[in-house]
Design a protein that fits this description.
By secondary structure, the chain is of the alpha/beta class. The protein contains 10 helices and 10 strands. It has a 6-stranded mixed sheet with strand order 9-6-4-2-1-10, with helices on both faces. A 4-stranded mixed sheet has the order 3-5-7-8, with helices on both faces. Strand 1, helix 1 and strand 2 form a beta-alpha-beta unit. Helix 1 packs parallel to helix 2, helix 3 packs across helix 4 and helix 4 packs antiparallel against helix 5. The N and C termini lie close together (6 Å).
């Protein structure tokens, strides 16, 4: 499954709904052995939430939490293939999967930390459980940027593959997870505390309800995203359509 929504693969209500539908279909299809998530194009896994287009923050959080619940409840291994920059809610989304592999050119950051935007997939909680609270603080409170190698060193990703052969190596990694299906599900269930997860969902809804998504703040955040796009070295422009997942 590829997030495909413009140059930055932004997450909108429609994109989140499509991801939820895809996971539900994969869960019910015996031919699907592992669920892989990536971003379309070379630049972004996802740059996060398209705050300009979410409409009701309460409605969007309901959708994002439904997607999180589906990913955490699936019986099949899940793998995020981070081929480019993973920003904001893109980082959070990848933390919901059992495994994360990154291209050598990938970067991971939560620029929203500097602009007062909330998390939407319980990212700080998931990061604290997968890595540790100190790393979660660096990502979600301080907004530090991690290269692929730095992310590997702190446990944000499980493997780093050269960008020239990324998808071949990532596919091989994903195939190997099929043999660890039971282990993946058991590890996920032992990691997550359902009551605490529900509390983080409530806290995110409260934070989103108080969000000041002013035009100036949005411009600042989008300017920061543009900086990452420029840094990715992309030379071609892909026209943005209605967006979605495929």
């Amino acid at each position: 499954m590829a997030i495909d929504n413009g140059d930055s693969n932004l997450l909108t209500p429609d994109v989140v709904d499509q991801l939820s539908t895809a996971i539900a279909l994969a869960e019910s299809d015996d031919e699907v052995k592992v669920f892989c998530l990536t971003g379309a194009g070379p630049s972004f896994f996802s740059a996060g939430v398209s705050w300009e287009h979410i409409g009701s923050s309460k409605g969007f959080l309901e959708k994002s939490h439904a997607l999180a619940s589906l990913l955490l409840a699936t019986r099949k291994p899940t793998v995020s293939m981070i081929q480019g920059a993973s920003l904001g809610a893109g980082v959070e989304l990848s933390l919901l999967t059992d495994y994360r592999v990154a291209s050598s050119k990938a970067i991971i950051s939560f620029p929203e930390a500097g602009f007062g935007y909330p998390t939407v997939f319980s990212g700080p909680y998931m990061c604290a459980k997968i890595c540790n609270p100190a790393i979660s603080r660096k990502v979600f409170m301080l907004g530090e940027t991690f290269t692929a190698e730095a992310a590997l060193n702190v446990g944000l990703v499980d493997e780093v593959f050269d960008s020239s052969t990324f998808y071949e190596d990532a596919a091989r990694f994903a195939r190997n997870t099929i043999h660890r299906t039971a282990t993946s599900e058991l590890a996920r269930h032992s990691l997550i505390e359902p009551d605490v997860l529900r509390l983080t969902f409530l806290e995110e809804r409260s934070s989103a309800a108080a969000l000041d998504a002013s035009p100036d703040r949005l411009r600042e955040l989008n300017g920061e995203r543009a900086r990452y796009l420029k840094a990715s070295g992309r030379t071609r422009h892909r026209a943005a359509g209605s967006g979605g997942a495929k």
